[in-house]
Specification:
mainly alpha
Length: about 90
């Protein structure tokens, strides 16, 4: 490397150092903003999950309540459908 090239490289490097510092600081701020946004999204997802868990608890309480006998209601509907079906079959014969 000759003296002319070295003399040209020194000011270029002197100017690149602040540019690199500014770019690095900018990248750090971008990552902080990105992390904050992801944290907010995570908090919203956690709140939604909590709300859904509460709804599932309520539904479980309704279904397991002794006065709410789903199985017997389903069987009653099946029985009535069978009776209706057999009445139709007897009318055809």
């Amino acid at each position: 490397m000759d003296n002319g090239t070295l003399a040209l490289m020194i000011p270029i490097l002197a100017l690149l150092i602040p540019v690199l510092a500014i770019w690095t600081q900018h990248q750090r701020k971008i990552e902080e903003i990105r992390a904050k946004a992801l944290g907010e999204v995570g908090n919203q997802a956690a709140a939604r999950a909590t709300a859904l868990e509460e709804r599932v608890r309520v539904l479980e309480a309704i279904v397991t309540d002794k006065s709410y006998d789903v199985a017997s209601q389903i069987e009653a509907l099946r029985d009535s459908a069978r009776r209706d079906g057999s009445a139709i079959e007897h009318g055809r014969n």
